[in-house]
Amino acid sequence: MGQRRPRSAGCLLLAIAAIVIVVVVALLLWYLLAGRLRLPGPKPPGPTRPSSQPATCPDVLMLSVPGTWESNSTDDPYNPTANPASLMLNVSNPIRAKFPNERVEVYTVPYVAQFSNPVAIPPDGQSSYNDSRSEGAKRATDKLAQTYARCPLTTYVLAGFSQGGVIVGDIAAQIGAGKGPVPEDLVLGATTIADGRRDVGDPGEAIEIGPTPPGVGAELALKGLNVPGITMTGPRGGFGKLADRTFTICAAGDLICDAPRQALSPGNILGSLNILVRAAGNPVHSLYNGYQVDGNGTTATEWTVNWASGLIENAPHPAHL
């Protein structure tokens, strides 16, 4: 009897160790399969600008980035049809109709645009937020870099909604810090609608259009949360040299951009994840096409169209070869 107790204790320790190993391996696999966030790094400075550019170059490139569930990886960037109800179509279509192609190239970034719930049972079969956002950021950045390399005098207008607003805001912050795919002086302006990294009160943040809700973007409310497929990156730290040209629109009660810190907490991971996943489909988040930003009844999308139109109308007319 005296010899069996140590053997039983040893077996118990081995069993516990085996369970720990299985849990660790399972967590590692979960993180690897869900994907990690891969954001584009700084771009090297380009060559000295010439006095003219090829005739095929537009005077202005308008980059439009749709929100979650409003695009896919194979969508046509010049005739997007992945989601006919995409909010950004209410911005890009009027701009495309108003200006000739040689004046403005309207490019809608095609990307997977999904947000998988990591705790859904059974799995929902969607791409993770990390993979989706990474793809959108890379495709948007690549388009800007490629255009600048071919058309060094083209200027830029950036706009995005929801997940696309996060992507546009990130790119604008990089450009404003001198680390983006195009020089700061070529960017006419940027606007984000329902930006998940929206911040208020700090120097260098975006200019608020319409009422200023007291909350912050979900990525700030959940700063530090890192579960498989979802990395909440916190505040950007301002838009640098683009701060005077960057605008943001957020409706009160939209948890994507107006999240009270007490409602989303990394200490309550499951509850916070459920709130975050539901927020993308909440009624407030889906009504920006009718959300009024001033006393004249101008909606968020109308304001963005008017803003972009003004920039394009007043943009330089570079010489062409």
Automatic annotation (TrEMBL):
Keywords: Disulfide bond, Hydrolase, Membrane, Serine esterase, Transmembrane, Transmembrane helix
Pfam families in UniProt: Cutinase
Transmembrane segments: 12-33
Species name: Nocardia aurantiaca
Name of the protein described by the UniProt record: Cutinase family protein
Lineage: superkingdom: Bacteria
GO function terms (MF aspect): carboxylic ester hydrolase activity
Lineage: Bacteria, Bacillati, Actinomycetota, Actinomycetes, Mycobacteriales
Gene3D superfamilies associated with the record: alpha/beta hydrolase
KW Transmembrane helix (keyword) present: yes
SMART domains, alphabetized: Cutinase (SM01110)
Protein family membership: Belongs to the cutinase family.
InterPro entries: AB_hydrolase_fold, Cutinase/axe
